[in-house]
């Protein structure tokens, strides 16, 4: 079995720490290096909360990719660096697997064009939890029959974006099978601005940010005399690792940008 050679960006974050542990455990994965915003020249063993690995730390993505020539870059940083890291990966023929949200539609179009022109696979996933992907798929099915829907997403209070990428992706999938529909009383008014949440083609999206949470979402459907709630909870960040492993294995078999893990699941 040939080894899949990997570089991880963002190893000190909560997701990054779990990804380092996952790559170390999977027998045909090999961690070559990590890219961090500081700690250049150190080893992974020197970083708090990480396994005692003799794996080098770099601050500059291009330097790292040039020296180690991995097959896959796992990027778990933030929107500020996500696109730059993807462009660097394309430059060196490396397939990026990205867990950063906040990309614009224009970003996705431009990154997809680069991937196709170079025939390099890339995956951006708003959520790597397999259960969350199933939640989105089930919600899309339900929306065909119950078009009145609201989304409530709850995340830890360190999350930068609202609504979450998962909530937006859920709304986009639902919109593929649901006609635009204004919900609630036609003359309703907000006594406090934002009380009804964000609006996506008539669907309302509500964001909660609290310490103690990880990642949680429920999609609530209403109809005459009944409601249906589809809910997913990530109790810890280890829940995202099977999805990252799936993406790493799949990315070398595609030649374009795939946005959303659901496209890799039958």
From TrEMBL:
It comes from the Bacteria. (S)-2,3,4,5-tetrahydrodipicolinate binds at residues 156, 165-166. Its main location: cytoplasm. It is found in: Cytoplasm. NAD(+) binds at residues 10-15, 99-101, 125-128. Pathway: Amino-acid biosynthesis; L-lysine biosynthesis via DAP pathway; (S)-tetrahydrodipicolinate from L-aspartate: step 4/4. This is 4-hydroxy-tetrahydrodipicolinate reductase. It comes from Alkalihalobacillus trypoxylicola. The gene is dapB.
């Amino acid at each position: 079995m040939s080894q899949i050679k990997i570089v991880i960006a963002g190893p000190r974050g909560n997701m990054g720490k779990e990804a380092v542990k996952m790559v170390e455990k999977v027998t045909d994965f090999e961690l070559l290096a990590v890219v961090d915003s500081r700690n250049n020249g150190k080893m992974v063993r020197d970083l708090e909360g990480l396994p005692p690995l003799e794996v080098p730390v770099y601050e500059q993505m291009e330097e790292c990719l040039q020296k180690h020539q991995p097959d896959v870059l796992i990027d778990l940083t933030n929107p500020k660096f996500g696109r730059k890291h993807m462009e660097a990966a394309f430059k060196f023929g490396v397939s990026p697997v990205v867990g950063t949200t906040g990309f614009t539609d224009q970003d996705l179009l431009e990154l997809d064009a680069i991937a196709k022109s170079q025939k390099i696979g890339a995956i951006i996933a708003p959520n790597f939890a397999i259960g969350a992907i199933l939640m989105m798929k089930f919600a899309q099915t339900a929306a065909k029959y119950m078009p009145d829907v609201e989304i409530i997403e709850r995340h830890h209070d360190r999350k930068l974006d609202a609504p979450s990428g998962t909530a937006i992706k859920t709304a986009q999938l639902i919109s593929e099978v649901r006609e635009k529909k204004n919900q609630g009383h036609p003359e309703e008014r907000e006594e406090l601005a934002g009380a009804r949440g964000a609006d996506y083609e008539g669907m309302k999206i509500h964001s909660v940010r609290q310490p103690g949470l990880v990642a949680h979402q429920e999609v609530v459907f209403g109809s005459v005399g009944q409601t249906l709630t589809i809910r997913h909870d990530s109790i810890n960040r280890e829940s995202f690792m099977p999805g990252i492993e799936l993406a790493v294995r799949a990315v070398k078999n595609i030649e374009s940008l795939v946005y959303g893990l659901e496209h890799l699941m039958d």
